[in-house]
């Protein structure tokens, strides 16, 4: 029997200005991760202002009241720490990893840039070039370019999930300090933020946070999220797109999935595990080992506030017939919808999915990021509840879930093909 891990003991506090603090004590190593999440992402951008959240993420390292441009990275390195940040459609996160005798530098940095950014025009112009280079990099990488095109076709331009987090060149050219400052002032406030502290740290951290953050005004209500979204699971039917890009054939299929809070979500993740987790999984065994049609195959399930999507991706061996490959994927989906897996296969998939989950969340760093993201989007118990539901799923429950989600009637099927390859897969 596989037992779901329990969440670590957490202390949750809320300052008068609305800042939520999550303290996760983990004394296994003398390190502390400070992770600050804002309930703001690409979904919160106004029409025509794509890339604002991501551009602001860059500018958070380029000067604030107490730190000159570049000083945050210099200070982090001088203290032997590490930092990074990321922007998604639903949230933005920043983290610092420090030894436990100096981690409070992260608090000082976060409080300073929450209170106000410099947004120097020279730094804006310089960082705009960096983001433009990122756009060019994504366009030049076959998988990134294919995924962006397929996801855009799947959601359409009326839904923020269909727009690239990084924005477009045209939107980026118009992103000035006024736009970034307005976004910062609206969303980068204590009432819209979650601060997760994990590692070799105790209750004294609460007072440290209070001293640095309590004086920052609460800001607008944290519930002011964007409503600029449309129904995803429409009757647009199966669609295909084809690109000429790269040296090998690549297939990426996107089709509807429930939001992360839907009861089908963990069961759908288990179905994907049956398809692609481990060498004995159905698609891995069939397409990679037995028939050698693909060099690898993978699946992914979006963890989103709104209804999201599943991604099935694979890289083809030379000469693989594309029509045959699509038909085989559909056949495997149909088999899961027609009959439950046997007990051994189900148990194997549950073990592999659980092992991957535990490995990805065992460090204090991982636990801080998971806690911050969970509190920003769902609740602290959400990821543990998802795993518990996955492990409690019985074989007889799966066919009906597969019938609801594992079909390509509303899929976008995207191909990135080498120059000169003909229809069907032959060069």
- Kindly report the name of the CATH homologous superfamily of the largest domain: Metalloenzyme, LuxS/M16 peptidase-like
Structural class: alpha+beta
Order of helices and strands: EEEHHEEHHHHHEHEEHHEEHHHHHE
Q: Main beta sheet: strand number and arrangement?
A: 6 strands, mixed
CATH topology of the largest domain: Cytochrome Bc1 Complex, Chain A, domain 1
User: CATH class of the largest domain, please?
Assistant: Alpha Beta
Average of per-residue pLDDT values: 93
Helix proportion range:
40-55%
Q: Count of DSSP helices?
A: 15
| Count of individual domains | 2
Low-pLDDT segments: none
Strand order of the largest sheet: 1-2-6-3-5-4
The tally of strands reads 11
Describe the overall structure.
By secondary structure, the chain is of the alpha+beta class. The chain has 2 domains: 10-213, Cytochrome Bc1 Complex, Chain A, domain 1; 239-417, Cytochrome Bc1 Complex, Chain A, domain 1. It has 15 helices and 11 strands. It has a 6-stranded mixed sheet with strand order 1-2-6-3-5-4, sandwiched between helices. A 5-stranded mixed sheet has the order 7-11-8-10-9, sandwiched between helices. The model has no long low-confidence stretch (mean pLDDT 93).
Features:
single chain; 427 residues; alpha+beta; Cytochrome Bc1 Complex, Chain A, domain 1; five-stranded mixed beta sheet; 15 helices; 11 strands
């Amino acid at each position: 029997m596989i037992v779901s891990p329990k969440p670590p003991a957490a202390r949750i506090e809320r300052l008068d200005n609305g800042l939520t603090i999550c303290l996760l004590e983990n004394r296994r190593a003398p390190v502390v991760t400070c992770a600050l999440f804002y309930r703001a992402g690409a979904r919160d951008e106004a029409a025509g202002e794509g890339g604002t959240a991501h551009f602001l993420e860059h500018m958070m390292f380029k000067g604030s009241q107490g730190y000159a441009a570049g000083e945050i990275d210099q200070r982090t390195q001088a203290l032997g720490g590490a930092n990074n940040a990321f922007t998604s459609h639903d949230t933005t996160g920043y983290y610092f990893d420090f030894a436990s005798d100096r981690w409070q530098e992260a608090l000082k940095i976060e409080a300073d840039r929450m209170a106000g950014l410099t947004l120097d025009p020279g730094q804006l112009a310089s960082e705009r070039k960096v983001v433009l280079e990122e756009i060019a990099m994504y366009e030049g990488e076959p998988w990134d370019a294919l995924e962006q095109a397929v996801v855009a076709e799947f959601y359409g331009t009326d839904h923020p999930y269909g727009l690239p987090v990084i924005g477009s060149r045209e939107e980026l050219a118009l992103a000035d300090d006024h736009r970034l400052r307005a976004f910062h002032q609206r969303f980068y406030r204590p009432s819209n933020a979650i601060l997760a502290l994990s590692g070799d740290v105790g209750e004294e951290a609460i007072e440290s946070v209070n001293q640095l953050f309590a004086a920052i005004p609460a800001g607008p209500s944290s519930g002011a999220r964007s409503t600029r979204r449309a129904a995803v699971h429409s009757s647009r039917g199966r669609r295909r797109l084809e690109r000429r890009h790269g040296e090998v054939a690549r297939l990426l299929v996107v089709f509807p999935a429930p939001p992360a809070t839907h009861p089908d979500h963990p069961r759908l993740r288990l179905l994907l595990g049956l398809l692609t987790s481990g060498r004995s999984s159905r698609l891995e065994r069939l397409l990679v080992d037995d028939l050698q049609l693909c060099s690898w195959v993978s699946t992914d399930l979006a963890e989103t506030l709104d209804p999201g999507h599943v991604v099935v991706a694979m890289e083809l061996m030379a000469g693989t017939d594309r029509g045959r490959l699509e038909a085989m994927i559909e056949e495997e989906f149909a088999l899961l919808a027609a009959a439950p897996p046997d007990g051994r296969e189900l148990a194997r998939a549950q073990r592999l999915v659980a092992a991957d989950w535990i490995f990805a969340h065992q460090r204090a760093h991982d636990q801080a990021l998971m806690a911050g993201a969970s509190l920003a989007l769902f609740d602290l118990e959400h990821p543990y509840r998802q795993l518990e539901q996955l492990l409690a799923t019985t074989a007889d429950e799966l066919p009906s879930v597969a019938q609801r989600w594992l079909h390509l009637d509303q899929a976008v099927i995207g191909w990135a093909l080498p120059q000169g390859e003909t229809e069907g897969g032959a060069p």
